[in-house]
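so my prof wants the structure for this chain in the tokens format not the other one, which i didnt know existed until like an hour ago. anyway here's the sequence
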Amino acid sequence: MSRNPNLAGILAMLAAVGLFSLMDAGLKLLSPHYPPLQVAALRGAASLPFVLLWIGLRGGFATLWKVRWGLHLLRGVLAVTMMVCFIHALRTLPLSTVYTLFFVAPLMITALSVPVLGEYVGPRRWTAIAIGLVGVLVVLRPAGEGMFTLAGLAVLGAAAGYATSAITVRVLARTDSTQSMVFWMLTLLTLGAGALAAPGWVPLQAAHVGIIAGIGLAGALGQYAITEAFRHGEASVIAPFEYTALAWGLGLDLALWGVLPDGVTWLGAAIIVLSGLYLLHRERVHVEAEHP
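here's what i got, hopefully its the right format
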């Protein structure tokens, strides 16, 4: 694997996607029993012990304090908003449908990179973004009785939060360590969501303790795996494997809830995924042209 860094990156990305999918399934199992803010706080708190262990093994505690606090606080607000929207959507929508709509995030990241980072996006990539948004409309079906609901819009809100957070990561990565970004995101998510959830906090059921622990472990291992994925492999090579989340979503929906998306959702998913893959292809062509 060391002789083929892209293979190592791909395997790590596949592991990360599977772990995050299992975490999301756990969040969906909790969502009918607790308010979204409380579930978001539990997600952060359950992962923190494992992340602290990872930081300790990497000797990264010294990097946690010399950070750009303003951007970390912004990421904390975005993390709370994103998780609450995402968990609200999981209450009523199948996991595969939530993933389908969430796949618009890479398109948003590309669009945001122009005004925020000053990057150049050519007409072909803008066309791919527009086609991807058509796919979102196909899934939402605003003219009918489809997913154009508060839950569907909540997924788009979560995707927008994720895209904005991803842009801040590009800026933070110039000065701050990966360990500090993960630690402060989870800490601020836990504290922020926990404080907002406190007035309506629902006592935890003993039957859910195992699910909460599983969410924490899967989330922490997933974060480690995705960090390793981008450390070993080229982003343009390994990023397309994020779309394997749709297969996980379909399998978990069928195994745990006995549901599958309808034909229109499949069509929208195909449009969104293909536009995202084309964007990644154009990004690779652009990078190779700049660095032959």
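also thought this was worth mentioning. DSSP finds twelve helices and no strands in the chain.
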